[in-house]
């Protein structure tokens, strides 16, 4: 890997880490924020859905703008916008102000994925390896974000956690401005060969990924609460608010292993078949999560982290395989909206399930949603032959 490729991985990786740290902090902070702004899990579930929907929706124009303004400028826009949104959350004085700040945060964070993934796919020689490393950073952000937010909240307040995110984004904007060469990015894009998109395969991939996105938002939104309430024999002396940060961190750290293995699998095996197999293995794990507690619950959650996150580097590489180079930013943006924008509604629906049946019921519900994903992943395979 060249020096420039290492710079790209470092900047996109750190940005990816921050995106997931910020977006996944709210589920772990719900039990704490409820003390300031009392509301049911269904209301907070829809609050997550709104932020997450904008997180997906904004990816479409972000992907389109990538060709016109360049990845470097959009990265800096995401970083500065996320910093300002985090400050709005920090100083919010009402539940409405909190929702506005979280919505803006989702909107600015939406810029990152189509931008970062396009930069990697257009500038790295080994795209699958690069996607694997990139996904590992995202899993690390998902892991440390909740724990960091809960730890800071227990010492200071939940507002201090978002203030820290604001400061970190400002630092990243300065680093990106000073180290990422806009001219070299442009040269690499021009020298990459172009090809025709496989539109049918992309459509089936997007539909498949929409179900994966639903499962993602369902289990990431309610896993902190599920683990904190159903692990009474583990760390019994800790308050449930702190458990809501510790256990998800363990799960998402296991997701780093999944991202690593996913990148390796994508290099050595048929990515399309591997993608389908990974979806299939997720289903029984999600079903099990709804009926077990304590040690088995933690082990099953770790297994889910490894298996689920192994799909991401493979899926992102499939998009590069199916799409032409010039429109890749838009394709990534469209795919991200379908996956996370539409998938975000699962958080709200899961909130209703959690309130009416119980938090445990969310996970089997997400498992059932992955059965259609199996069908469409097979159609994707057929369309790409």
Task: Describe how the helices and strands are arranged.
Blueprint: H1 3-23, H2 25-33, H3 41-57, H4 59-69, H5 71-91, H6 95-109, H7 112-123, H8 127-155, H9 158-179, H10 182-191, H11 199-229, H12 240-268, H13 271-289, H14 294-309, H15 311-322, H16 328-342, H17 345-356, H18 362-383
Short description:
With 385 residues, the protein is mostly helical. 84% of the residues lie in helices and 0% in strands. It has a single domain (3-383), classed as MFS general substrate transporter like domains (Growth Hormone, Chain: A, Up-down Bundle).
How would you describe this structure to a colleague?
- The chain is mostly helical.
- The chain has one domain: MFS general substrate transporter like domains (Growth Hormone, Chain: A), CATH 1.20.1250.
- Helices cover 84% and strands 0% of the residues.
- The mean pLDDT is 85.
Output the CATH homologous superfamily: MFS general substrate transporter like domains
Task: Please give the CATH class.
Answer: Mainly Alpha
Q: From the alpha-carbon coordinates, what is the Rg to the nearest angstrom? A: 19 Å
Task: Let me know the average pLDDT.
Answer: 85
Low-pLDDT stretches:
none
Would you identify the CATH architecture?
A: Up-down Bundle
E-strand count:
0
Supply the helix-strand structural class.
Answer: mainly alpha
Q: Helical amount among residues, as a percent range?
A: over 70%
* Main sheet specs: none
Order of helices and strands: HHHHHHHHHHHHHHHHHH
CATH domain topology: Growth Hormone, Chain: A
Number of domains: 1
The number of helices is: 18
**Which percent band covers the strand fraction?**
under 5%
Q: What overall form do the CA principal axes indicate? A: globular
- First and last CA, distance: 31 Å
